[in-house]
Amino acid sequence: MLSTVKKQLFLVLSLILVITALTACGSSKTNDKTASSETPVNNEVAATEESALKDKYDPAVTITTAWGVDPAVQFKNGETIENNVATKWALDTFGIEIKSLWSVTDTNNAFATKLRLAMSSGQKMPDVLVVGNNDKQLVSDLVESGYFREVGSLFDKYANDTWKKSMELDPSVWNPYMKDGEKMGIPVLDYAYNNDYILWIRQDWLDKLNMKAPTTLEELEAVMEAFKNNNPDGLAPDKVVPLSIGFKSSMNTWMGDPSWVFGAFGTIPQQWNEGTDQTLEYGSVNPGMKQGLQKLNEWYTKGYIPKEAALWDENKTAEPAVAGTAGIIPGPYWMSGWPLVDTAKNVKDAVWKPIALPMGADGKAGRHGTSFSSAVVLINKDMKNPEAFFTYENYMYDNIANPQVGSQYDIGIFKGYDYDLDANGNPVYLDDVPGGEVNVVRYFLVRDGARIPDAQMKALMELADGKTPETRVEKDLANNFGKETPAAAKVVMSQPDASYMDMFTGPTTETMKTKWDYLKKIELQTFNEIIYGQKPLDAFDSFVANWKKSGGEQVTKEVNEWYSSVK
C-alpha cells in the first residue's frame, strides 16, 4: 500500500512540475528560456515535455516559401530574394534556413497567377505562404485547397505577448480567414492610417503662380488649369500632368488612384461602406459614383488627368511626379520619402507639400481607410516544424517592430543596407550608405517584417510636435521617410472622419466565388468608358441594374448576413 501511495505522490508531483513548466513556457515572450532556467526540472519529465519552440535550432530547420517580389524592391552585393542578408541572418540567428520553392516579379498579378497554377496542377506548396489580402478570392481558394492548416491553436500556443497584444488592437483582422469557426490564416498587421490618402502638391508651382492650396474641388480645378496652361516652369500644356492618377486594375488602391474624388460625393468605390440604415452597401453602386465619374470625365476632357490613366498602375503614376512634370499626386503620408524625394534629381527646386483632401460642394471629403492587416500567413498542414515560424516572428515583434533606445536594432537592422556608420561612428542613411540604402524589411519572410499598428502614427505625432527622435521607429521616420512625413501625418489626422474603412472583412461569400470576377470586370469597363467619353453618363444607371441582377444583389445579401453575425 505504501509503495502504491509513493507512486501516486510521485505522479502528482511530476504532473505539477509539468504544469508549472508549461505555464512558464506560455508566459515567456519569445521562447522556453523561462521554463528551462527558472522551473525546477525533473530530467525524465523535461525529456518528454520540453516545448518545441526554440531560440535557435541545432541542427537547423528549414522553412520553405514562395515569393511575389515587388518590382520596386532593390538588392545589392549580388543578392536576390532567395539569398540575401536577411536569409543569412535567419540561419545565423535562429538556425532557420529559408528556402524558396519559386519566386516571380509580381507584375500583372504574376504571383497570384503562379499560385493558381500551382494549386490546379497539384504542385508542392510552401511551408509558409504570405499572400496580400487585396485578392480575397485567391486567399479563399488557398484556404479551401486543403494544403493549409488551422493556425489559431498555433498562435495561441506559440505567439508571444507583444504579437498577441498587437493583434488585439483590432480583433476583426481575423475575420477574413475564418472557416467553420477556425482561424485558417494569421493576419499580417499593418500600420494604422498607412495608406489613408492626402494630396501631394508642387508647392513651388503654387508659389510662382501666387495661388493657395485648394480646399475644394472647384479650387482644385483652378489650380490644375493653371498648372497645365500657365505652367510656372514653362512646360508646354501637353507635357504637364496636373493630376497624376491611374486605375488600371482598381480605383481603390495605395497610390495614385481617384477614390478620394468619389469621396467628395459621399462614397468610396470598390469597398463596402456602412449606410445610414447600418447595412453595408457596395460603394461602386452608390449614386455618388455617378457624380464622381462625371467629374473625372470633365478632367479627362480638359487634360487634367493622364490620357493613359486606364493603363497606369500605382508605380506608373509616380513617374511624372518624379520627372517633375506632374503637379499633384494623391497618396499616403510617407510619399515624401519615396518616391517624391527623387523629384529633386530632375528638378532642383521642386518642393512637394502635403495638403488635405478637397471637399465637394456640400463639404464632404472621403478616402479609403487603411485596414490593420495587409496580408495573411498560411501554414502548410504538412510543415514539419510549424513552431519555427513563431520563433522567427516572435523575435521580430519583440526586437524589430519597435526597438527601444540602446537596443541591438536601435539605429538600424543591417549595417551596409538600411544604415551605415561614418568615420566617427555616427549612423548614416539613404544615399550616404555606401552603394545606397535598400529597404531590407522587404526581404523578411513576412511582408514588412513586423508592424505594431499604432506605433508609427504615435511616433509621427510626437515628431510633428517637435520631439527629438529617440526610438528606432522615431529615427527611422525622421531619417528615411522624408522631411515632410510628420507634417503629412498631421494632415491625415486633421481629417479623421474622412476615412472610410472597408466594413466587409469576412471571407469570400458563396456568390462572390462564382460572380465577383465578372462583376468587377463590368464595373471597371463601364467606369473607364464613362471617364473616356465612350459611353454617356447614364451608362452608370444601366451598370447598377446589371450589377444587381448579375449577382450583386445576392452578394449584398450575403455580405449583410455576415455583417449581422459579427456586430
From TrEMBL:
Residues 1-24 form the signal peptide. InterPro entries: Bact_solute-bd_prot1. Residues 27-42 have a biased composition (Polar residues). It comes from the Bacteria. Keywords: Signal. Residues 27-49 are annotated as: Disordered. This is Sugar ABC transporter.
